[in-house]
């Protein structure tokens, strides 16, 4: 068999572990693997590279993706889906493994319905894909943010300051909630729950009254004030219709300082959260996903996506994963709330 593999959308730690796992398993079984460069862009342009033992050697701990990635949407190009289909057959591919988040897998779902043999692998630091308990990349991001919160804690304490930490998460506050719990945040603000600024400030004030003269507030980039719009860095939409978010941290910091009178600083973690080496958890998860994706291809079970349920790797329909985003479990947020204030 000749199997193509591509990585699309925002990169995340663990992509190389999947590429390595698919390639090693396929080569073991006597199959051929073609790496498609820069996500769907590579399939539009037939930009590919044959993957062999050498090309995947040493990539397991490397962040990013050796195949490159892009936010290219073939459905936004003239005859895009037709070109993708023609190139799939021109390249003699028997199947394609698409590794991505909501956008890349959304395209994979449509192309599968139009007849292409596709299997999906879920990735995103945001952990907002349905049908899987976790996506790889998330654990690494949470560890990075937790370490940053720990560092901010010590300087906040020395200076009696409020530290606002803005993290990624445009539709869901998974990173904010997990890293906030792990880092002992004094308030966590997520897209799922509009910000009640009075509640935040009162909580900080009551904390100070009990002698805690510093506070850590974690806010997801997609969080909004009650009845207010998202904070946007750039209005221009990408090919999947997303605008670039950012700015909530600064706005929040200013309001908190004005309302409480406590000195406040803001840190925006940005792409730091997506860079660097994957955690051991993400390396293992991505490896298990890669092997399972290969097995689905061999069994010709196309239109499926690998997923984690409990500690088992299962498979689900691609559509189940891309139909609706997975928002933060509010029961988990209730646990985080115990430690607010
Ligand atoms: O979807 C993953 C993500 O990291 C989001 O959390 C964030 O809003 C977005 O990508 C940033 O995208 P870009 O890398 O294009 O700036």
Chain-wise SSE layout:
Blueprint: E1 2-7, H1 15-28, E2 32-36, H2 40-45, E3 48-51, H3 80-90, E4 95-100, H4 102-113, E5 118-122, H5 138-159, E6 162-167, H6 174-183, E7 187-189, H7 197-209, E8 215-220, E9 232-234, E10 244-245, H8 248-260, E11 264-268, H9 280-298, E12 304-309, E13 312-317, H10 318-322, H11 330-337
Parallel strand pairs: 1-2, 1-4, 4-5, 5-12, 6-8, 6-11, 7-8
Antiparallel strand pairs: 2-3, 9-10, 12-13
Bound molecules: 6-O-phosphono-beta-D-fructofuranose.
- The gross shape turns out to be elongated
Give the helix tally.
11
The first-to-last residue Cα distance is: 58 Å
Q: Major beta sheet, specifics?
A: 7 strands, mixed
Percent strand equals 15-25%
Could you name the ranges where pLDDT drops below 50 across 5 or more consecutive residues?
none
Model description:
This protein has 11 helices and 13 strands. With 341 residues, it is α/β, with parallel strands linked by helices. α1 (15-28) packs across α9, α5 (138-159) crosses α6 (174-183) and α7 crosses α8 (248-260). The longest helix is centred in the middle third of the chain and has 22 residues, at 138-159. A 7-stranded mixed beta sheet has the order 3-2-1-4-5-12-13, sandwiched between helices. A 4-stranded parallel beta sheet has the order 7-8-6-11, with helices on both faces. Strands 9-10 form a two-stranded antiparallel sheet. β4, α4 and β5 (118-122) form a beta-alpha-beta unit. It has helices at residues 15-28, 40-45, 80-90, 102-113, 138-159, 174-183, 197-209, 248-260, 280-298, 318-322, 330-337, and strands spanning 2-7, 32-36, 48-51, 95-100, 118-122, 162-167, 187-189, 215-220, 232-234, 244-245, 264-268, 304-309, 312-317. The mean pLDDT is 97. The structure holds 6-O-phosphono-beta-D-fructofuranose. 6-O-phosphono-beta-D-fructofuranose is lined by residues 10, 101, 124-126, 168-170, 221, 244-245, 274.
